[in-house]
Amino acid sequence: MARPAQRQTRREFLKNSATLAGAAATLPIAAPAVAQRPKLNYWCYQFLKESDDARANFAREWAQKNNVDLQITMVPLKEFLPKITAAIEAKATPDIVESNAVELRARGQLLEVTDLFKKLEKTYGGWVGNAPKVMLEPDGRVHHIMYGFQGFMLITRDDLLEKAGLKPPPATWTDLLAYAKKAQQPPRTFGLGIPVSNQTDSQVWEDMMKSYGARLADDKGKRVVLGDYKPQVWEFLDFFTEVWKSGVLPPGVVTWDNTMNNSTYQAGKAVFVLNPITISLWLETNNPELLAKTGHYTYPRGPKGLVQPVTFGSRSIMKYTKVPELARQFLWDSMEPGKMDRESAVSQWGPVLKDYLKFDVWKKKPFMKGLIEMSQKGEPQGWPDVFNDAWREQFTNTTISRMLQRLVVDNWSRDKAFAEAIDVLNKIYTKYA
Amino acid sequence: MAIRHRSVAVALPAGSRSARWPSARTRETLGGIGLLLPTVLLLVGLVLYPFFYAIWLAFSDKTVGSPGQFVGLKNFIYVLSWPQFSTAVVNTIVFTVSAVAIKLVLGMAVALVLNQRIRGRNFFRAFLLLPWAMPAFVVYLVWRWLYDPLSGLINYALIDLGLIASPIPFLSDRSTAMASVVVAHVWRNFPFYAISFLAGMQTISQELYDAAQVDGASRVQQFRHVTLPGLYHIIGVVVLLTTIWTANAFEPVYLLTGGGPSDATMVYTMLVYVMGMTNLRLGEAAAVSTLFLPLLIALVLAVTILLQKKASA
Amino acid sequence: MRESLSIRATTYALLALFVFMVAVPLFWMLTTALKSNKELYEDFTYLPHRPTLEHFVRVIRRDGLLTNIWNSFAVASVTTAVTVVVSAFAAFSIVRYKYRGREWIGRFILFKYVLPTAMLFVALYAIVVALGLGNTLKSLMLTYLSITVPFCTWMLMGYFRSIPAELEEHAMVDGCTKIGALFRILLPLSAPGIVASAIFSFTLAWNEFLLALVFTSDQTTMTVPIKLSMMVVGDQYIWGQLMAGAVLATVPITILYFLGQRFVVQGLSAGSVKG
Q: Is C5 an 8 Å CB contact of chain B?
């Protein structure tokens, strides 16, 4: 986020436009065409300085090359929704956004980009893994273009496991618990840094539950069917209770926010955490010794198989844009492999197009290797449930984690907590039916 | 503040009574309204419109980007049947009442101390306002860290002082979560009470204290019979306003506990956030806020009428 | 006015307690700002072992925080100045004039606060855009008035009522206009109330988050709270920078508190009550 550079560039723009306008004024014929530069308003997703800088700098260079008057706003994920809400209602929307495509798409706020989707597929060797599933809607249309996979990995203190005589990675969740119990040294280090809170890093438990065979809704993503999976849920709850009682979870996990597993691992206080590689990128700059001791693996399996969810970063065009062709051009140019190569080196994203698989960075940085595997094997978040509005709302509401909290914080019976979770799910899903 | 309300009698020179227009009465009205006009414009433009829009939202099915239509009480029924709604109401009341009560006592105590002749008074008066001087989210993030069982100052200090044996998860235990949130909130907000009361104390004449002292009143009695009555108006306004602000507080809970553990600190503003902000369903979010309106409006009316009655008494 | 020893002791004891309460978190903020990134994640320390100014430097150089501080200062100053004037006029009008309906304005003015900003910001932004003030500091100066004026009007109403009208009447007999009396007599005597209103308005404008978030888009208009919130990136708190930024941002407003509170003294109003 090099602010002075941004201001300078704007001064340059103003200088350029002033010069252009001045020159144009002396050429009455050419005046209208030259003095009018198209405006592009770009809300850039802000989460990691180097990655943000890469995207923002690309945008500025692109704007200069294409003679565009560019306005960049850096928007952290947490702040995006209020801003876009106000912008839509006040009819003052940006042209390009990089967050919450699913919600916006469902509200019909995005421009269709199916042609871009197909063109990218043809030109760059095809999409990786389940990227098409994330972008394609049931009617075959596409409203956002993915530029990166992001997923939770099992981030591991390989050195502590070695000391305990264990060989990573743990294959199943049960193995994970066993490893965590053996390798931890409380109160200095705890085995498992997973929140059981009202924040979305607690999502892991829902994925775990699904690897035991349960699911929330039917294949259409409309009707809640969790009640039909009581045996599977109970088996999962047995495992959860075992985890809870074993003491591998540090104190305070029931109110952890999304930063706590990061800071706990980075402070060397956890053996295992499940997180995107934002941790690894932080360690690269601030604690390379710890990074050297860290392993990155895909999720362990449950009794009914592997549930490895991935999320994504994507770019979309607001439908109110006055410069649709320009915006499409920007989207297209942003996916160019050379540019993505440079950006991938400093970001947490996995490759979305097969041509990106050739980048050196995946080999150079060992922790990036796991990203490839995850991008190729990962299913969209919520799988096997359909990744739609209703699922998103219950996800933000951390329904399953709340159910678990009812058990361990409020000492509710399983039936009572289960019934409440189903009730909440029903209320949410009915709204979107 | 002793309130003496007097009507203003403008002494007019005799001759002007013959002037027909603008009459003194009209001049007075115009003058008064003129002075009030900027405020009225502000209120109508920037308060009334958003206000009624928000209320309309509560009765509509509006989501971001779509026009929204009137749906009557549908949102209210949805909100009222939400499992955590009644818990949110109870928690909001508990949080608000305890926070306001503590802030009131603490703020008054601080104001009293800062009103005395103490060395370095100017410095302390600025220093004790500092919790108020930074953005709320900074304060609550810091307090979250202070409370942390693994890396927080409070636990480390308590253990090093030998007062406790193992860390207390202040924010994660049902029995301590709400109190911990209240403490952080009080820390951040008591300066408002302190500065308001301190300003109010300046209008109480020293002669009243002297007279009371001559009558043999102790300091406590002086406080009860001179200070408190003099602050009656400002206490009323401050308590009223901060009750509303505290009930509408979002950041303390969101940043410290996220409503947890479970729903131990779930207040109604968290419900608004979870129900409306994150899923772009403005109608539902507005319904939650609107449900609390009658209570808050009744509060405002009651206190303002009471205070104005006292003023004209 | 002799003060007994026990009164003085109690006063100083309480003062010490309050100072301690306030100081502990502030101490933590300051020491955090002085610790290196690595040290922040190592074992817990009360004081920095290797204090560093790197966060302060970074926050000024790389993040341009001084610009944001200037933006906040501009917004807060203008908001405060206009608030004091507008509120003083309104309070004066309600308290010293007679016309129909003024009691009602006084009664309803506090209703502004019953709905949280989270419910109002969408409509407010629509108004701001319609006025062509999108992404300007002016949008904040204008909308903050709607939050500061109601309370300050009430505050000043109470203050004006406590000052007897005879003083103004005497002045007017001597040839002063009614407005002149406001400026010459009433306002100076209400200095503590004015200062309290100013402190309230400035603090609110300085720390306000939601409207600043929605109305501003880039470095030219971003205020301090928004810039600081960008130091919470994704799932990491950049503690060193965040605390350094917070400490720096507190400096201007602290200076203002220090300068302003000197006017919160007795004798300016109370002594004027003639028996």
A: no
Number of residues assigned to chain A: 433
Helices B136-147, B153-160: inter-axial angle, 10-degree rounding: 40
How far apart are alpha carbons A213 and A230 in whole angstroms?
10
Best CA proximity match to B63, nearest among C115, A354, A389 = A389
Contact at CB, C237 and A91, closer than 8 angstroms: no
Q: Which of A340, A310, A356, A294 is nearest to A126 (CA)?
A: A356
CA distance A152 to A201: 9
Domain ranges of chain C: 2-41, 55-271
Cβ of A91 within 8 Å of Cβ of C129? The answer is: yes
C165–B8: do the CB atoms touch at under 8 Å? Answer: yes
If contacts are CB pairs under 8 Å, which of residues 143-182 in chain C contact chain B? 143, 145-146, 149-151, 153-155, 158-159, 161-162, 164-166, 168-169, 172-173, 178-179
Kindly report the backbone phi and psi dihedral angles of residue B83, in degrees, each rounded to the nearest multiple of 5, phi listed first: -55, -35
Dist. CA A97–CA C121, nearest whole Å: 21
Count of CB atoms within 10 A of residue C4's CB? 9
Question: How many Å apart are CA A180 and CA A166, to the nearest integer?
Answer: 10
Is B260 within 8 Å of B240 (Cβ atoms)?
no
Task: Show Cβ contacts of residue A241 under 8 Å, excluding neighbours closer than 6 positions.
Answer: A407
- The verdict on whether omega for the bond into residue A195 sits within 30 degrees of 0, i.e. cis, is no
What distance in Å separates the CA atoms of residue C244 and residue C55, rounded to the nearest whole number? Answer: 6
Q: Does the predicted TM-score (pTM) go above 0.95?
A: no
- Which segments of C62-136 does DSSP mark as H helices, in order? 65-96, 102-108, 117-130
Which domains, ranges and CATH numbers included, belong to chain B? Answer: 2-58 (no CATH), 74-312 (1.10.3720.10)
Question: What is the average pLDDT value for chain A, to the nearest integer?
Answer: 88
Contact A370, A377 (CB under 8 A): no
Nearest to B169 among A107, A109, A252 (CB): A252
Angle of CA points A426, A429, A431, to nearest 5°? 110
Q: Which residue of C has its CA nearest to A49?
A: C233
Res. C224: pLDDT tops 90: yes
pLDDT band at A17 (very low <50, low <70, confident <90, very high): very low
Q: What is the pLDDT of residues A420-431, one digit of tens each?
A: 999 999 999 998
Sign of CA dihedral C25, C28, C32, C33: positive
d(C-alpha B192, C-alpha C152), whole Å: 13
Place of tokens 């400035």: C202
Q: For residues B100 and B239, is the Cβ–Cβ distance under 8 A? A: yes
Residues A340 and A333: their CA atoms lie apart, in Å, by 10
Map residue C176 onto helix, strand or coil: coil
Helix (H) or strand (E) holding C232: strand C232-233
Name the residue among A58, A34, A64 with its Cα closest to residue A347.
Answer: A58
Which residues 6+ apart lie within 8 Å of A285 measured at CB?
none
User: How many Å apart are CA A305 and CA A301, to the nearest integer?
Assistant: 5
Beta-sheet pairing, A39-46 with A190-192? unpaired
Query: What's the Cα-to-Cα distance from B289 to each of A87, B49, B121, rounded to whole Å?
Result: 22, 16, 42
Contact criterion met (CB < 8 Å) for B128 and C19? yes
Q: What Cα–Cα distance (Å) separates residue A282 from each residue in A286, C34, C50?
A: 6, 19, 21
Instruction: Render pLDDT for A396-425 as a digit per residue (tens, 0 to 9).
Output: 889 999 999 999 999 999 999 999 999 999
Question: Is C44 an interface residue toward B (CB < 8 Å)?
Answer: yes
CA distance B29 to C181: 17
Instruction: Report the residue of chain A nearest B171, measured CA to CA.
Output: A255
| Segment A142-176, tens digit of pLDDT | 999 999 998 889 999 999 999 999 998 999 999 99
Class of domain C55-271: mainly alpha
